[in-house]
Amino acid sequence: MDELAARVSAALGVDADVARTAIGLVLGFLQEESPDGAVAELLDKLPGARETIASAESAGGGGGGLGGLMGGMGGLMGLGAKLSGAGIAMNQIPKLGHEIFAYAEAEIGPEKLREIIDSVPGLAQFV
User: Which CATH number goes with the domain that contains 7?
Assistant: First the structure.
């Protein structure tokens, strides 16, 4: 998890705590939205992933601003709002996704990653 957090931090120009929270929010979203076992396989291959998800969820993705106003919203819009509340600008979200999914592909392979992407409605347009 440290390697992924460092990659995200460098790519987005945010500190490691913000990067780790953002990763946790994205992985938690995938865990919640994807009915496949491919997400569980990914989480098993990322040491500390479940703890990172729990930490991000307890932080709530930030409570103020856009995240606070839209925090009850579900799906990808809700994830965007949580990421915004956690300190990720909307224009940084595509780069965040790119870093997480590139890392995931290296861990579980392109076929399993495609299963995850295809299982979440609307996700493919952001990958």
Answer: 1.10.490
